[in-house]
Amino acid sequence: EKSFGMTSTQGGLCGSGFIGGFMLMAPLAGLFGHGRRGPVIIGVGLFLWTASVMTTCFAPNYPVLLASRIVAGVGEAAYSPLALPMIDDSASPNQKALFGGLFFATIFIGSAMGFGVQAPFSTWKHARWIFFVEGVAMVPFGAFAVVCRNRFNKGAAEIAEHTLLAAADGVSTVDEPAPPSARRQVAMLFSSPVYVSLMLGYCATIFTIGGLAFWAPSIMTSVLGVNKTTGGLALAVMTGASGVFGSLAGGVSLDVFKICLGGERRLLRSILVALVCSVTALPALIGMALLDQPVLWFSSAGISQFFMFMASYPANLGMMEAVPPQARGLSLGVATLLSHALGDLIPPVLIGMLVDRTHTLRPGMLILALWGIWPILLWSVAFCIARSRRSDHSCTGSLEFAQ
């Protein structure tokens, strides 16, 4: 802020600009990222991201800095909704869950690395070179996505196979492998009650996560009486560890449930894992809202974060599986948009208004905790619908075979 003469509001606007570019572009990337176009869009997005972070490094003034952060969000959005479907297509059947969990774990590894790398630098003059180095490091990945795009193309045979498996789960399907129109893709999403329930439950989870991320430092200092530096470090370590190990556990648990359930389809398994995680996280969330003792509060925070992060990959996988293959990218792009619009954009303002009225954080924290009931309800609905449709399909198939 000192280097560019920014106010705190202008500094915060750089972060909001990144999120704005990210959430608005994600659905478009998902909409047009079919087949061989997906890796190309990712490659172009990564090159755009590289150019923007290098511009950030050499930004001469605040307007250029702000513009570069917005463009960085746009570039990263090209990657977000398309990477998981491509990983899922490329991994072997026995590695899909593990690789999906690793993908979500790397998000938190990157965040932890960001905190660690910037810590030694006290001025922007030296810290800005971090952006240059990470921009250069991204170039090979963008080139790989474009050059090796044929490896990630989901062919007609695979789409047909997915269609048969999806029909067993009661998911609406299409016959042709060609990319449908934008209007039809949107209709595919919102005509699926399973997808809508999963997506809204995911938005509710992000609502709680976003609210806690914003207000947890204030809770530590004003409610728990913990030193800001010590508490901030403990919170960063706890969040990073919960994110990494929770995401990995989400992938591993899908394989465990596969063994326990005797080969149930991935849609049902993913919903069930996410549902179990949300049920387990709720008591710990309530503990965060009510406890005053620092050790107990941090224990509750760690448990709740672990299980909410553990639900992230299964929930996203469920959204992918709840729609036809041609709409998978859009399903995650729309979820990205709405999880920010209905999720982490609201709690900072809402809880702030409550604090101004009540002069305490307790009511706001209780709202965030009880908001964890929504994923339980919505994912329960999704599971019941998916299971009933699969049962109906099985009964119909058996009857037709008998006839």
Compact overview of the structure:
This protein has 403 residues and is mainly alpha-helical. It has helices spanning 8-32, 37-58, 62-77, 80-90, 96-118, 124-127, 129-147, 156-168, 182-190, 193-223, 228-260, 266-290, 294-310, 312-321, 328-344, 347-358, 362-370, 373-402. The longest helix has 33 residues, at 228-260.
Low-confidence stretches: 159-164, 169-176, 393-403
Global shape: globular
How many distinct beta strands? 0
Strand content: under 5%
Q: Could you give the distance between the termini?
A: 75 Å
Total number of helices:
18
> What count of structural domains?
2
Structural commentary:
The protein is mainly α and 403 residues long. The protein has 18 helices and no strands. The model is unreliable at 159-164, 169-176 and 393-403 (pLDDT under 50). The protein folds into 2 domains: 1-164, Up-down Bundle (Growth Hormone, Chain: A); 192-393, MFS general substrate transporter like domains (Growth Hormone, Chain: A, Up-down Bundle).
